[in-house]
Amino acid sequence: xxxxxxxxxxxxxxxxxxxxxxxxxxxxxxxxxxxxxxxxxxxxxxxxxxxxxxxxxxxxxxxxxxxxxxxxxxxxxxxxxxxxxxxxxxxxxxxxxxxxxxxxxxxxxxxxxxxxxxxxxxxxxxxxxxxxxxxxxxxxxxxxxxxxxxxxxxxxxxxxxxxxxxxxxxxxxxxxxxxxxxxxxxxxxxxxxxxxxxxxxxxxxxxxxxxxxxxxxxxxxxxx
Length: 224
Ligand code: SAH
Hints:
Layout: H1 4-7, H2 14-26, H3 32-40, E1 61-64, E2 67-69, H4 72-82, E3 89-93, H5 99-107, E4 110-115, H6 118-130, E5 136-140, E6 153-158, H7 167-171, E7 173-184, E8 189-196, E9 203-211
Parallel strand pairs: 3-4, 3-6, 4-5, 6-7
Antiparallel strand pairs: 1-2, 7-8, 8-9
Helix pairs in contact: 2-3, 3-5
């Protein structure tokens, strides 16, 4: 949940935020819950101070440690594809700035997020606290191993591109669950929706379009 204090009157970024929401709508984002999450989540708290004036541009921005906060439109497409209803337990791999974590928290019940870079994990935790988000947990570690303590997950979102779905993530996906991941090589990937069909271990894959994410680095990803 996002506190009203930061998103209500007196929030100097409110105008920029509603313009971002309009830009997302103009580009075809229709899911009202997703648009509401963008309207209520203070992106400026998740970007480096010097970039705050650009916090609500529909653009990827550097967040330090060679990583980027993804473009809002890309994140919105991701979130639409997950089709969250408000009560799910979600696993996110690649916390980064924590912004997408906050969006997920507005759309789901509980969010468990794994980040391998200590400085980013710490900063994200701090920004989530500042934003008043209370349903996120951040773990420092290799996300290609998942986070087995809270499995299974109704949805898994991988925010970095890898060659293959890491087997631990497939194993931690609940029956009927959805996993989104950019699949490909280090330079270019195809955003892929992976669904665990009803009762069995079968995974159904649907390509959703081209993507360009930072590499997923870990035991079941690329070498560092
Ligand atoms: N969605 C994020 C941006 C994620 S960028 C945001 O809104 O800011 C991708 C992140 O994945 C980076 O922070 C990178 O450090 C992290 N990452 C890469 N490989 C990882 C792994 N194996 N486990 C956890 N995090 C990983």
